[in-house]
Design brief:
By secondary structure, the protein is of the alpha/beta class. The protein contains seven helices and nine strands. Strands 1-2-4-5-6-7-8-9 form an eight-stranded mixed β-barrel. It starts with a helix and ends in a 13-residue tail after the last strand. The relative contact order is 0.14.
């Protein structure tokens, strides 16, 4: 009897165990299965290359080493400031196509080019005709500007007449700007007893200076293969034809100019 009861109890336990397993299996099958998330690598972005627009080049932009002085018989020169850093004047002097140089001397009331003294000494030592220029600031005291220039630009060291670099009206009305400019030119003429050379761009001249610089020799800048024409028909002695010139002894680019065909370098010699 005991054995039968024991067997019955064992059978019930087994039956209950099997029922529990069956229920668990049903519940597990009914539960939603979580899908394994697969991270996809982002597709690389396509780089679309856009063809650059064609750039119209001048002769000097296309080949800065092929310059006017290589193909003509004009008298050529350069202008130099501290922007060219240290110039190897022995190499420049060996270039027989370069006859003259204008050196930046001063700017405004108190700015002095830090390489001016070095440049003028070495340029002279290599037989270049040398002149000096002042960058004009129309709103700055004229007496201070001429004092600044006189302190550096010594007559005994000049081969060429002094030059006034005129590139900005500083926002002044044309009449007021030209009045300031005329006064500065007279101060330079009183100091050096000769009319200074005036440097400016063709467009700037045409906008502000037509008919206002009669009697003053001009250097006109226009970076083109065509010679500049001034709106009032004024003649000029020197044409600065590129700011991207290349020259032995000068690192990087340099402004180049030439004496126009009906003029000579002798016209801008400084008479002591």
């Amino acid at each position: 009897m005991y054995l039968c009861i024991h067997n019955l109890i064992s059978m019930k336990k087994i039956t209950i165990f099997l029922l529990i397993c069956l229920l668990v299996g049903i519940v597990c099958d009914a539960a939603p299965r979580r899908r394994k998330t697969v991270r996809r690598k982002a597709a690389p972005r396509r780089t679309v290359k856009v063809a650059p627009k064609p750039v119209k080049l001048t002769v000097h932009d296309a080949d800065p080493f092929h310059a006017c002085e290589d193909t003509c018989s004009h008298v050529h020169g350069i202008d130099v400031s501290h922007y060219q850093n240290e110039v190897f004047w022995n190499a420049v002097g060996d270039d027989t196509n370069m006859a003259y140089v204008y050196l930046k001397c001063t700017e405004g009331s108190d700015n002095q080019d830090p390489l001016y003294l070095r440049n003028i000494e070495l340029a002279h030592s290599h037989d270049l005709k040398v002149g000096s220029y002042h960058f004009f600031r129309p709103k700055v005291s004229l007496s201070q500007q001429i004092r600044n220039f006189k302190a550096q630009c010594l007559p005994a060291e000049q081969d060429l007449i002094p030059m006034l670099d005129v590139e900005t009206d500083a926002g002044l009305p044309t009449e007021q700007f030209c009045d300031s400019l005329q006064k500065m030119l007279r101060l330079m003429e009183d100091t050096y007893h000769q009319k200074p050379l005036v440097y400016t761009y063709r467009n700037f001249y045409n906008k502000h200076l037509q008919g206002r610089l009669d009697g003053y020799p001009l250097m006109i800048a226009m970076y083109s293969s065509e010679k500049p024409e001034l709106a009032d028909g004024r003649d000029y002695i020197i044409w600065q034809y590129t700011c991207k010139g290349r020259l032995s002894g000068v690192k990087g680019e340099v402004d180049k100019s030439r004496i126009m065909g009906n003029h000579s370098l002798r016209e801008i010699y400084y008479v002591r």
